[in-house]
Amino acid sequence: MRDNNKKLSLTTRIVIGMFSGVAVGFFLKLFFPDSLFVEGYLTKGLFHVVGQIFISSLQMLVVPLVFVSLVVGTCSISDPSKLGRLGGKAVSLYMVTTAIAISFAIFAAVLIQPGAGVELQSDATFEPSQAPSLAQVIIDLFPKNPFSAMASGNMLQIIVFALLFGIAMALVGKPGDRLRGFFEDFNEVIMKLVIILMNLAPYGVFALMAKLFSETQFETIFSLGKYFLLVFFVLILHGVVTYSLILKGLTGLSPWIFLKKMREVQIFGFSTSSSNATIPVTLETVTKRLGVNNSIGSFTVPLGATINMDGTAIMQGVATVFIAQVYLVDLSIADYAMVVLTATLASIGTAGVPGVGLIMLAMVLGQVGLPVEGIALIIGVDRLLDMTRTSVNVTGDAMVSLVVAKSEGELDEKIFNDSEADLKERDVADQL
C-alpha cells in the first residue's frame, strides 16, 4: 500500500479524496438522511473536525506567507517605480478579466433565459450589508496597526505594509541586507510547511466533500436547475477558454501546460471555497511549477486573491438577468452596461469585505432597480457554485501572474515547460 501511494502523484491522491468524499456524502444523504448517529458522529463530528482543521491549517499559513514572501520580493526590486508598474498591470488585468466575465455571463443569460417562466417562492431573506465608500476604501488600505491587520487577516492592509517594509529594507543598506537573509530563510520554512500540508490535503478534501454532499439539499438545486447549470457552464468556459486565449495572446505560453499544472490549485480552491485560504498553494504553484519569479508572484497572487472576482462577477451577471426575468422586469442595453461597470468597479471597492459577493450583487441590483430580496431565491444553490467560482478565481490569479511576469522578463519558461517528471525530480532534490 505504501509503494502504491508513492506511485500516485499528489494531484491524483487529491482527486481520489475529492470524489471519494462526494460518493460517501451522496451515500449518507441517500441511505441515512435522518440518522442521528451519522449526523452527530460523522457529518458534524469526524468530517467537520477534519475539514475545519484542514482549512484552519491553510489559513494559518496565509498571513505569514504573504507578508514574508512579499517583503522578500519587494526588497529585491532595486527600482521602486517597478512596484507601481507591477500594480498598474496587475490591477488593470484583473479588472479587464472581470469585465469580460460579467459581459459573457449577461450575454449567456439573455440568450438562455434561465428565469423565464420560473415561479419561485422562498422563505429565506437577505439583508445586504452597507458597502464602504470609495474614500473609506482608500483610507482602509493603510493599517493603523499592522499587527491588528495580520490578526484579522486584512489582506490589502497586509500587502501595503509588506510593500512599505520591503522598500524600507531595500533603501536602508546593510541592516536591510542582514534582515533580508532572515526573511529569505523564514520564507523557505513557510514553503516547506506548505509542502507538508499539501501532502495531508487528500484527507482534508475528502472530509470537506463528504460533509458538504451529505448536507446539500438537492431539491433546491433541481428547482433552480437551469440557473445552476448556466452559471456552472459559464464559469468553466471562462476559466478554460477566456484565460487560455488571454494567456496565449499576451505571452505565447501553452494554455494546456498552464491548466494541467493548475489542477491541484483548482481542487484546493474548489474544496475550501476561499481564494485567501488557497494562497499558499497558489503561490507555491505559481513560483515553483509555473516559473514566475517570487518578486512578482508574491505581489500578484495575494492581490488577486483579494480583488480578482471573475467567478463572482459571472454569478452576478447571470443572477441579475435571472432575477429580472423572474420579476418580469425588462432591462435595457444601458442597464446591462451599468451592471458591467458597477460589478467591475465594485470588485476592487469591496475587496476584503465579508460576504463580498452578495454585497456586490445587492449593489448591482440596486443600480438597475431590481428588488434586492431576489437574492434570497438563489442563496440555496450558492454554496456549490461558490466552490466553482473559487477555482475560477485562483486560475485567474495564476494567469495574471504569468502575464505580468512575462512582460517584466521575470518568467523562467524552462520551469513552465518542465514536465511533471522533471518537476517531481526537482522537488525530490530540493527535499534532499
TrEMBL record:
Natural source organism: Pseudidiomarina terrestris
Topological type in the membrane: Multi-pass membrane protein
Keywords: Cell membrane, Membrane, Symport, Transmembrane, Transmembrane helix, Transport
Main location group: membrane
InterPro entries: Na-dicarboxylate_symporter, Na:dicarbo_symporter_sf
A single GO BP: dicarboxylic acid transport
Protein name: Dicarboxylate/amino acid:cation symporter
GO-annotated cellular components: plasma membrane
PANTHER family hit by this protein: PROTON/GLUTAMATE-ASPARTATE SYMPORTER, PROTON_GLUTAMATE-ASPARTATE SYMPORTER
Subcellular location: Cell membrane
Transmembrane helix in keyword set: yes
Membrane-spanning segments: 12-32, 52-72, 93-112, 155-172, 193-213, 225-246, 359-381
GO molecular function, a single term: symporter activity
Superkingdom, taxonomy of origin: Bacteria
Pfam families: SDF
